[in-house]
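Lab notes, practical 5.
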Amino acid sequence: MSEYNAQGYELDWDSEIENDGPEYTTLPEGEYDFTVVGFERQRYTPSAKAKLPPCNMAVVSLQFKEPEGSTTIKDKLYLHSSVEWRLCAFFTSIGQRQHGERVRMNWNAVIGAHGRAKLSVRSYTDSNGKERTINDVDAYLDREEAAAPNAPHQTPAPSAPPQQMTFQAGKF
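Output from the prediction step:
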């Protein structure tokens, strides 16, 4: 049943309706904390001028909750070696990977994970000819980058668990 809730459900011709849809907030460019609230497995089928060949694709839904508003962004992660760096950045950001570490992607554990990303603002014209703006994920940030001073729009980063100290005889 949860599969129907994630993608909606069919209405009857005489169904009652009330959902006006979520209000979309475009956040200012900057760094923000996110929670992964959705994940879909899809297949990428390129157009004639595409840079990538057909490959598997993960579509992750990232929720950003800020004082200026809340928004959910869908980001496409292509499972192709030429963009492996972006997959590494995503899994490092959500804490499933350490920088430089080789890991198996655990897609079953991404929903509910927390990370940090740098957002940009993109303008586009909708189907009615109206100018609109939307956020794009420019980069996924690992824990060290998120703690960097002088970064734009710093919201508090989640605190890391305390490191346990071990006793070694003769070491001070």
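Observations recorded by the TA: Helices lie at 2-7, 84-93, 143-146. The first strand starts at residue 30 and ends at 44.
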